Structure formats: C-alpha cells, structure tokens
User: What shape does this take?
Amino acid sequence: MVYGYVRVSTREQNEGRQMLAMHRKEVPRDNIYIDKQSGKDFERPMYNQMMERLKEDDLIYIKSIDRLGRNYEEIQEQWRILTKEKKVDIVVIDMELLDTRRGKDLMGTFLSDVVLQVLSFVAENERKNIRERQKEGIEAAKMRGVQFGRPKRDLPDNFTQVCHKWRKGEIIGREAARLCGMPLTTFYGRAREIVMD
Assistant: This one.
C-alpha cells in the first residue's frame, strides 16, 4: 500500500502544496493522513492512525523531512521504527537521496543515514530559530508600544465609587464586581490599577 503523510503546524496553515505533491505521486486520497499541529513530538492522532495501518513493504511519501517532525532525536527514532521495525519504505519528495527503495546496500544505507541526520538537525534548528524570531518580534513590537491580548474595556462610570467602598470594607469584592458589571477577577485586576487617596 502507498500512504502519504501531511503536516501543518496550525489549523490556519494550508496543506495545499503538500497535497499537490501527494496527488502527483498518485497517493490515494483515503491513504493520506493529515495532522494540523506542531512537529515538536509524535503525539499526533493521524500519524498514529497511519502507523497502526502500516504493513511490511508499504510505502510512505512525505513532502519534506520537517513535515515528519522538527525534533532531531525523535525524527531519527521514528525513521528507525518505520524502516527497521515496521519495514516500510519512505520517500522524502523534496530530497531524492532520502528514498529507502533505492540503495539498500551498505553505501545506500550510509548515504541515507547521513542525509537524514543532516536534514533532521536542520529541521530542529529551524524550529529553534522560529521560536527565537517570534520572541524577538514580540519584544520589538512591545518596544513600539504594540499591546498584546484583548484590549481593556472602559471602566464603568461607577467604578471609582464602588472601588472606594470596597477598599474601605463597606462591600465585599463579589458585590463590587456585580455593581460594576464585571467578573470578580477583572474587578480585582482593574482595582489594582487605580490609585486612590
């Protein structure tokens, strides 16, 4: 049997390019497994479903090694499980050297192993770079004054009066929040922002 494995990191990302590659390889649509989640580990429902179906001599197509995963050690381990334990063949479409159907002799296996190690290292390194770029982007945006999260709602007209009563102990927090029409945690958070005499 021929299978295809497709992965995108988020639900918003489009798997179209990978699906086109599977179509070109004539992978039956029912045999394409798609996960929409991070490649940091292999706790993925569709990947695990595919693993359960695999039989010896089956063939799996993957568009690129980073679609399999982005964790160096886990990619190596999954490759070993697939090729040695499950005894299936893998073709990484974007890297012709990673086609386990060819070169099953010692030299072919050696070349595949070296290329796999390099590519899986690159995949994990790219994951780290993405996180670092994201962190830097957030820091730069904060320096420019960009606010993250939901915008704060305007305080109700009675907030200062109610807050004053609550601080004096005339009413409890739950009552203060009710009078202001907001959840208790929101009331406490906004009350901390208000400086009162």
